Amino acid sequence: MRQFTLSTTRREEFLDITAEVAQAVRESGLSDGAALVYSPHTTAGITINEGADPDVKRDMLAHLAHLVPNRADFRHAEGNSDAHIKTSLMGPSQMVPVSGGRLQLGTWQKIYFCEFDGPRRRTVLVQFLPSAIAAGEDQ
Ligand code: ZN
Questions:
Q1: Interval 30-63: pLDDT, tens
Q2: Residues with CB in 5 Å of ion ligand 1
Q3: Distance from the alpha carbon of residue 6 to the mean position of ligand 1, in angstroms
Q4: Which residues of the chain have pLDDT under 50?
């Protein structure tokens, strides 16, 4: 397993971590299998979505804020229940297929770290899951 850290700069933002994950896969030597990209945090998740038009992540953040406003009647004393809920909506991880040592993302896909209670220093774990099929065997 590998990990990297990042610093978020706003309370809520999506950071493109595709290059960091691809680098971790290269360093692992994994050729075929999958990479599990995992956020070990309760107020930050991982998602995969369009990376070409920055308005997509802006619209996603705006709609999540609309879906989950920071309500005064939330009971959690830390005051960040909206961040916990948005994190569960996004989920803590994404699994990306790897073939020939490369992430098999679609043309428009990027991997995003989803910060909902920043700015903070955060960690991302990348766990490699090799294919059970031995090299050279056909599927
Ligand atoms: Zn909390």
A1: 999 999 999 999 999 999 999 999 999 999 999 9
A2: 78, 80
A3: 20
A4: none
CATH architecture of structural domain 2-130: Sandwich (2.60)
Q: Tell me how far CA of residue 104 lies from CA of 27, 37, 53, 96, 99, in angstroms.
A: 17, 14, 20, 7, 7
Distance 102 CA to ligand 1 centre (A): 36
- Rounded to 10°, the helix 54-67/81-90 angle is 130
In the chain, domain spans: 2-130
Ligand 1 geometric centre to CA of 79 (Å): 6
Q: Which amino acid is at 20?
A: E
Residue 87: DSSP 8-state: H
